[in-house]
């Protein structure tokens, strides 16, 4: 299984949807909340993103909550 990191914020409804979806699929992931974790915020900005959710699956980055792309990457 590929490593999965989900960059979130506390008030983002799409972040909640993405986390719920991954949990429904029984997929393990690490959540990094950029609202309360300065290091996570710096990591996200270094990747060139300023909004959340950003879901990193292996080497692929998904900006936003894209079920089809998540399914495709976790199936590989």
Give a structural overview.
By secondary structure, this protein is an alpha+beta fold. The chain has a single domain (4-37, 51-75), classed as Glutaredoxin. The protein has helices spanning 13-24, 38-46, 67-75, and strands at residues 4-8, 30-33, 54-57, 60-63. The protein has a four-stranded mixed beta sheet, sandwiched between helices. The mean pLDDT is 96.
The average pLDDT score comes to: 96
Number of helical stretches of at least 4 residues: 3
SSE string: EHEHEEH
Low-confidence stretches: none
Number of strands: 4
Distance between the termini: 9 Å
CATH superfamily: Glutaredoxin
Strand coverage percent = 15-25%
Number of domains: 1
Structural class: alpha+beta
In order across it, which strands form the biggest sheet? 2-1-3-4
Q: Categorize the overall geometry.
A: globular
Computed Rg: 11 Å
**Percentage of helical residues?**
25-40%
Which CATH-level-2 architecture?
Answer: 3-Layer(aba) Sandwich
CATH class: Alpha Beta
Question: What is CATH's topology name?
Answer: Glutaredoxin
Strand count, sense and barrel status of the largest sheet are: 4 strands, mixed
């Amino acid at each position: 299984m590929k490593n999965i990191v989900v960059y979130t914020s506390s008030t983002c409804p799409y972040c909640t949807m993405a986390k719920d979806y991954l949990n429904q699929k029984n997929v393990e992931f690490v959540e990094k909340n950029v609202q309360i974790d300065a290091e996570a915020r710096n990591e996200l900005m270094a990747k060139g993103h300023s909004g959340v959710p950003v879901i990193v699956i292996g080497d692929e980055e998904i900006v936003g909550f894209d079920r089809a792309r998540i399914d495709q990457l976790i199936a590989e």
